[in-house]
Design brief:
The protein is mostly helical and about 525 residues long. It is built from 22 helices and 4 strands. It has a two-stranded antiparallel ribbon with strand order 1-2. It has a two-stranded antiparallel sheet with strand order 3-4. The chain starts with a helix and ends in a 9-residue tail after the last helix. The mean pLDDT is about 90.
C-alpha cells in the first residue's frame, strides 16, 4: 500500500469536508442559532483542517495508485467523512448519541435517507441543512468532486478512484481527460439542482411555513439531486402543493438517468440517447410500475384507509414510483398501508434501482438487463451446446466476463442482504409493537421479519423508508446500537457497491507486494 499517497489524498478530502461545513455554519449564523450551534461546526472544521494539512507533509515515493489502493481509499474516505460529519450533531445536542449521529450522516452521504430522528420539528436549521447537503455531496460522489482538483496522471489512478465510487458496472470517460469529465458531470449536476430550486420557488409557500420557501426549495432540491430522502417537516413531501410534488417527481426521474446521456444531449447526439437500451428499459419500467400502482389504488382490489381522487391516485403513484425507483425515499402519503399489489410493485423497483451512472442506488438497471440476457444465453446453451452467444448491450457484444461479473455482484448482494437480516434478528426490538401516526391515521405495526427485511433493503439499496415498523412515517430509532452499526455499514456497502469496503477490511490488501 502506498500509505503516504493515501494519506495525502485523505488529507485533501478532510480539508474539503472542512470547507463544505462552512455552508451549515453560515446557516447557523443566518438563523442566529447561538454559540453552541456555531461551535458545533467550528470545532470539526478546525480539526479537519489541522489533520488534513498534517497529512500533506509526507512526500510519497510513488504518486500512482493501484486498483486495490483506489478501492480501499474510497471506503476510507466515506468512513472518515462520516466520523467527522457526525460531530456537529453531537455538539449541538440535536442527536446527542454518537452512533445515532453516525447513522444519520452516513445515511446522508450515501443518499439513503433513513433517519433516527423522531421529531423533525425539534431540529435546528443548521443540522437540517447539513444532513440534506450531505445528500448533494454524496450523490455524485465525494472523490468524483476531488478529482477536479487532483493533478491528472497517465497511470490510471483517477480511473481507479472513479470506478470504485461511481455506481454501476461500467465506468468510463465521456471526454479524453478525466478532470474534464468530472467537471462536465458536476456542471450538469449543479445546473439541474439550481433549475429545480428555481422551479420550486414558483409554487405557493406551504401554509405555516411562508418564510421558509427558499430554504425548503434548496433542501428538497439537494435531496432530489442526490436521490436522498431527508425531509425537514413532518410527512416528508406530504404538505407540499401538487405542483411541487409533480416537479420533484419529474426531477427524481431525471436524476435517475445516466449523466453521460445528458452530455450526449448537450453535444447534439440525441439519437444515441434514444438508442440506449438502459434508457428505454428505465422508462418502460417506470411507466409499468406507475400503471400497476395506479390500478391498485383506483380499483381497490383490497381495502386500505386512504381515499384518493383519480388525480391524487396518479400523483401518488407517479411520485412514489419515481422516489423509490431512484432510491430517494421521499413520500407524499403512507404507502405502508397500500394494497399488496402496490407494495409488491414498490419492493421490486426498490431492488432494481435506476440507471448506472446516476445518483441512484439499488442493483442498477444495467445489471438487471445484462443478467436477463446472460440467463437467456445460458438457457440457449443448454438447449443447443453449439450455440454461439451474440447478445449485445448498448451496441457492444456482451463478453462472458461481463456477464459473470454481473452475476457475481448480484449473488454477493443477496448474500449480504440475507446476512444482514440474520444479524438484525438478534435485536431486542423484534416482536414489539410500534405506533405509527400518518395520513392514514394512527395504527400499530409489529416489528418483525418484514420490518428487518425492508430495513435491510432500504439501507442496502440506499432508499430510506421501508415497510411496517420502519415505514415512511416511522424511524430507525428503535433499533439497538449494534443494529445501527450493522445498518451503517450496510448503507456504505450499498453506496460503494460492496468491493471497496471488502478490500478495505481485507488483510491481504494491506500487505506489501
Amino acid at each position: 500500500m502506498n500509505y503516504k499517497k493515501l494519506g495525502k489524498i485523505l488529507g485533501k478530502i478532510m480539508i474539503l469536508e472542512a470547507i463544505l461545513m462552512l455552508a451549515p455554519l453560515a446557516v447557523a449564523f443566518i438563523y442566529k442559532e447561538g454559540a453552541r450551534n456555531i461551535f458545533a461546526f467550528v470545532i470539526p472544521i478546525l480539526a479537519l483542517t489541522a489533520i488534513g494539512f498534517l497529512l500533506q507533509i509526507p512526500k510519497p515515493k510513488r504518486n500512482s495508485l493501484y486498483q486495490k489502493e483506489g478501492f480501499a481509499l474510497t471506503a476510507m474516505v466515506w468512513i472518515i467523512m462520516t466520523l467527522f460529519g457526525a460531530i456537529p450533531f453531537v455538539i449541538n445536542g440535536d442527536i446527542p448519541n454518537y452512533i445515532n449521529a453516525c447513522f444519520e450522516i452516513m445515511s446522508g452521504f450515501t443518499t439513503t435517507g433513513s433517519s433516527i430522528i423522531r421529531d423533525i420539528t425539534a431540529i435546528s436549521h443548521s443540522t437540517l441543512f447539513w444532513r440534506s447537503f450531505s445528500h448533494w455531496i454524496g450523490g455524485m460522489g465525494i472523490l468524483v468532486f476531488v478529482l477536479i482538483f487532483i493533478p491528472e496522471s497517465n497511470d490510471g489512478s483517477a480511473m481507479h478512484l472513479l470506478r470504485a465510487e461511481s455506481p454501476g458496472p461500467q465506468v468510463g470517460k465521456i471526454v479524453s481527460k478525466m478532470k474534464v469529465t468530472t467537471r462536465i458531470l458536476y456542471l450538469i449536476y449543479f445546473g439541474m439542482t439550481v433549475l429545480e430550486v428555481v422551479i420550486l420557488m414558483l409554487d405557493k409557500p406551504i401554509p405555516g411555513y411562508e418564510s421558509e420557501q427558499f430554504f425548503f426549495s434548496l433542501i428538497y432540491s439537494f435531496g432530489c439531486a442526490g436521490t436522498g430522502g431527508f425531509g425537514v417537516i413532518p410527512g416528508s413531501v406530504e404538505l407540499f402543493h401538487p405542483f411541487s410534488q409533480y416537479v420533484m417527481a419529474i426531477f427524481l426521474i431525471l436524476f435517475g438517468i445516466n449523466f453521460s446521456l445528458y452530455y450526449l444531449l448537450l453535444i447534439g447526439k440525441a439519437r444515441q440517447v434514444l438508442k440506449s437500451e438502459e434508457f428505454r428499459a428505465y422508462f418502460i419500467i417506470v411507466g409499468a410500475a406507475v400503471g400497476l400502482v395506479f390500478i391498485a389504488l383506483v380499483w381497490r382490489f383490497e381495502s386500505f384507509p386512504q381515499t384518493y381522487t383519480i388525480e391524487e391516485a396518479f400523483r401518488h403513484s407517479l411520485f412514489q414510483v419515481a422516489s423509490l425507483m431512484t432510491t430517494a425515499g421521499f413520500t407524499t402519503t403512507d404507502f405502508n398501508v397500500w394494497p399488496m399489489l402496490a407494495r409488491t410493485t414498490l419492493i421490486v423497483i426498490m431492488f432494481i434501482g435506476a440507471m448506472a451512472g446516476s445518483t441512484a442506488g439499488g442493483i442498477k438497471l444495467s445489471r438487471i438487463v445484462i443478467a436477463v440476457k446472460g440467463a437467456y444465453i445460458n438457457v440457449k446453451k443448454l438447449i443447443n451446446p453449439r450455440y454461439v452467444p451474440k447478445a449485445k448491450f448498448e451496441g457492444k457484444t456482451l463478453e462472458e466476463k461481463t456477464i459473470s461479473d454481473v452475476f457475481a455482484f448480484i449473488t454477493l448482494y443477496f448474500f449480504i442482504f440475507v446476512f444482514v437480516i440474520f444479524l438484525l434478528s438478534f435485536d431486542p426490538i423484534n416482536g414489539e409493537m410500534i405506533t405509527i401516526v400518518s395520513d392514514a391515521g394512527e395504527y400499530t405495526e409489529k416489528h418483525g421479519f418484514f420490518s428487518n427485511f425492508s430495513a435491510t433493503l432500504a439501507c442496502m439499496s440506499n432508499i430510506g423508508p421501508g415497510f411496517e415498523a420502519v415505514g415512511p412515517y416511522a424511524s430507525y430509532a428503535e433499533y439497538s446500537g449494534f443494529s445501527k452499526i450493522i445498518l451503517i455499514f450496510t448503507m456504505m456497502l450499498g453506496r460503494l457497491e460492496i468491493l471497496p469496503v471488502f478490500i478495505l477490511f481485507s488483510p491481504k490488501a494491506w500487505k506489501k507486494i
